[in-house]
């Protein structure tokens, strides 16, 4: 079953159909479905937090545009497009958001700063987060396709208060990374100290 999705504005020279086709061509079916879920949840969170619903839906839809781009292409972009070379010490989990913004600008023609920043921050979060940053970060974690122990609690917290949703997610992610002895991107720690520590 083909899921229909259209955007009133693409924030790019592309039509909605062109943008959807490019997104679809850049990832497998499962990832595409996740992106539709994040788009719908971003719209819902935008409505609850008085943010532009169409803009949030678009940002959510393209947040993982670069998720399946090759390591070679990421490394080439990091080396030649002015990125912090420290990124080379991390992996594609971190690259697909930060470096993904380069591919989104180049291939989808999106220049809107707010959208690009939300995508940049969607995996690691940051000490400063705009409303759109928080919406995409949280929607990614709680979209209907997510199924992990604690997801129902995450949904409850996030729909009740967006900032608390950010804090819950960062604590959960750090817990997971430490348990699995994964390397942690310093921004993730910094963000945890701002959003997750009990007041
Ligand atoms: P996805 O792209 O929809 O799968 O979700 P995300 O972009 O939020 O996360 C991608 C992966 O990066 C997840 O498995 C996270 O646990 C992981 N991740 C988040 N922060 C960090 C970090 O600081 N270091 C590492 N190594 N992985 C992280
Ligand atoms: Fe992602
Ligand atoms: Fe995602």
UniProtKB/TrEMBL annotation:
The keyword Metal-binding applies. Its EC number is 3.6.1.41. CDD domains: HDc. Keywords: Hydrolase, Iron, Metal-binding, Nucleotide-binding. Pfam families: HD. It comes from the Bacteria. It catalyses: P(1),P(4)-bis(5'-adenosyl) tetraphosphate + H2O = 2 ADP + 2 H(+). The keyword Ligase does not apply. One of its GO terms (molecular function) is nucleotide binding. It is an enzyme of class 3 (hydrolase). This is bis(5'-nucleosyl)-tetraphosphatase (symmetrical). It comes from Lactobacillus hominis DSM 23910 = CRBIP 24.179.
């Amino acid at each position: 079953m083909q899921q229909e999705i259209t955007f009133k504005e693409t924030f790019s020279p592309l039509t909605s159909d062109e943008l959807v086709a490019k997104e679809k061509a850049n990832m497998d079916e499962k990832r595409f479905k996740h992106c539709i879920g994040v788009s719908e949840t971003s719209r819902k969170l935008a409505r609850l937090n008085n943010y532009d619903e169409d803009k949030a839906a678009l940002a959510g839809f393209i947040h993982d545009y670069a998720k399946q781009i090759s390591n070679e292409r990421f490394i080439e972009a990091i080396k030649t497009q002015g990125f912090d070379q420290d990124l080379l010490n991390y992996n594609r989990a971190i690259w697909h958001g930060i470096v993904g913004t380069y591919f989104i600008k180049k291939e989808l023609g999106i220049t809107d700063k707010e959208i690009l920043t939300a995508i940049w921050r969607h995996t690691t979060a940051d000490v400063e987060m705009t409303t759109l940053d928080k919406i995409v970060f949280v929607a990614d974690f709680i979209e209907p396709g997510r199924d992990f122990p604690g997801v129902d609690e995450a949904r409850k917290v996030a729909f009740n208060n967006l900032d608390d949703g950010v804090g819950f997610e960062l604590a959960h992610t750090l817990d997971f990374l430490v348990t699995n002895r994964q390397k942690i991107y310093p921004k993730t720690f910094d963000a945890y100290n701002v959003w997750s520590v009990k007041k």
